[in-house]
Amino acid sequence: MGIIVTIPAIIAALIAFTKSPEKAFLKLYIPLLLIFPDYYRWMLPGLPDPTFSQAAILPIVIAFILQGGFSRWKASFADLLVGGFAFSVACSEYLNAGYNEAQNLAFDMLCWVICPYILAKGIVEPKGLRVDFAKQVVLSLFFISAISLFEFRFGMTPFRLIFDRFFPGQGLGWVTTFRYGFARVAGPYGHAILAGLIIVIGYRLQCWLYWSNHWEKSFKGFEWIPLSKATIIRIVLIGGSIMTMCRGPWIGAVLATGITLIGKTKHRWLTVSLIIALTLSIGAPGFLYMLSYASVGRAQAQSVAQETAAYRKELLDKYIDIALEHSVFGWGRNTWPKIASMPSIDNHYLLLALMHGLLALGLLVAIFLFMMARLFIHSMKVPYGEPSGSTLGFTLLGIYASIAFSIATVYMGEQSLPIFFLITGWAEGYLLSDKESETEAVKDKVSNQLFKFRRIIV
Q: 126: cis peptide before it, omega within 30°?
């Protein structure tokens, strides 16, 4: 029954080849990625096992290439970082587990890293579709947040109720967890923390759309509702985030909010200085307190929250030495040594070092730092715009900060991985397109000055 993953692939191919790759990317792939679980696979003997989103993205990329997508491609250093990350992960798996496992992981890297990056970079900004892209992400997560009330109320995800029958034995590892007596909503993302991370991304994009006046006043057919469409979406997304009950993504959301506020003020450097001062005055003592809080050990923890913090501290203490034993290429995705009392690695940086080594970890960190530095420098140079908060760069920078913090509390898995590389492709396209626009503006300015000078001489 797993063959049903080919249905969206067929539809994607029809749309991409008869209409356009960008239409298939926006109207099919993005909602499919965010609404359908990616832990169900069509198991193919001797071949990679595709998920719904993986099966759909391949024909879109093929159509993009055949229709001249790369003829307008602007090569950049980010391409090398993204490609290097995917290659290092696949190479690590080949060295540690052999061809069969490497084949499957290489396919994941192709469909979850390379293809999303290519399409986002090659379509969103070059085709002028940033608003359409952001809306597709936001509306998909609005839908997920709304239907997650079912999981929050009944303690079971509707996605497993629907799809388990088509994929026997799959998805069993993803169960609804509880906190304070309430179900922690995971949606189609497997774990509540992943859901929290992804919904925060949607919320930040929604804020940008709202600040930029890109929403119509109300939902069609629901004009009688006193709240605006943008307000309803924001409320539902906040509700979805609350239902995950995950502190890591919440803190990441606060960081993202602080960064995006820089773009809403005319006094940016003053705001940056205040944020740095606040971070040092509150963050440094807070870090020392959390270090002391987490250092008591799980046996002496006074609460579930403290036990969780102590567990994450012990992870670093006990697994770093293991990671350094195979420092360059790691131990492999499923072959790293597990400590019996600590089988779950709730820190993606540590997990990546264990599985695929410091090379892969270094490339991932380099992507974060390279993109964030460029977004910051670029956004600080952009003149204050109207309406307030309409500068996209600060929103993308805030999203990076949110993800960077959140994955220190959870692994970057399932849909969170392709979403990260969609954001990276979009950000790269945004930076390159704005750089080109700035260059053209300078040329026009110089040309006009020369023209005026010549007229004066005559």
A: no
